[in-house]
């Protein structure tokens, strides 16, 4: 049996994103990190394991079951609770006893493999019935009783249909959903919660205290701070932030659902583990933790011997990572770099305009390269860094980075061309009309423009 008490504060990782699940090798590496860093819980909930969600009634084949058993053994050996999650809500037939029996049949297979911790997820599903909270509570309670009859140490967690504050305000699940869940669900069952939003910039003590009153128990935080499955152009390697150490005393546990690409998760998970271990009275310095974790990750960016030049530089590495910091902010170096570039473009526009006004009508445009600032050396260094990622010895890391790094490099090249030119417009072979930034989705994105308050309005013609 697993040596992690169901009453322990849960800290760990959720494999709960949309997209290809992690490989067995990646999970083995994850469990090694977790054991070394003192994290105690792993939740198996990849949305695109078909038998987790779309084909939830089907039991695993012998080969599939053996892979799950290997993960269970690895977690047990590392002192990690393995929580197996099932998401039956897409097509669950409420009121049909056979459906609850199908859940139990699935969990029975995991019990036979040595599992004892489970979760039922009713997230990201359509509202198909009135009073879903009552029906879902009855299902979870019945499954929990069934589990405890077979395993006295079994635990069950539950993900509500409205699992963040924004969803509750939008009426997801109907009026009084959370209060009904809190009242009806067995008190031993933990309830997942992502915070004020699906991806929450901050989760405050006041927020979870208010929620705990409605749920009649502290929530179990499912933290999507570093999740990137909703935006394939981005990833997030910034620190665990926006949460104070005092939060740990107000919740059942903290579990993070990170980047879909496993190789990009070292810094997010390392800083999260450090956050879990920091004394409650201490100040959490997210930036310092981030830079320390980058130092640990830096050796993974070793390159093959090449005529391309010297090894990658630490300063360019920090700037690159700051470009992919957190969903709601860039890192300090990237933010400063952006402001420099913005100021340089404005200065060039002003300078070229003055030159044109001063020139005679029949005079050619000026040909001298305009004065440039130190930002150009940073731009050049970051371009080189992006290009030389192709030389990484760690190929899985390169494959996780290369599409995003290629896009960044192309944009930096376009800016470099513009700032180095005296013309008011420049062309680029990498930005041909209808190809780069082309396609149907970008055209759709141009129809409505985002505004600062989060709303959208028609784009200017």
Summarize the structure in words:
- With 461 residues, this protein is α/β, with parallel strands linked by helices.
- The chain folds into two domains: 10-283, TIM Barrel (Alpha-Beta Barrel), CATH 3.20.20; 332-443, no CATH class.
- The protein has 14 helices and ten strands.
- It has helices spanning 24-37, 62-77, 97-112, 132-150, 165-169, 177-184, 205-215, 266-277, 286-297, 314-322, 332-358, 375-388, 395-420, 440-445, and strands at 10-15, 41-44, 81-86, 117-121, 155-159, 190-193, 220-223, 253-256, 448-450, 456-458.
- An eight-stranded parallel beta barrel has the order 1-2-3-4-5-6-7-8, surrounded by four helices. Strands 9-10 form a two-stranded antiparallel ribbon.
- Helix 3 runs parallel beside helix 4.
- The chain is globular and about 80 Å long.
- The mean pLDDT is 91.
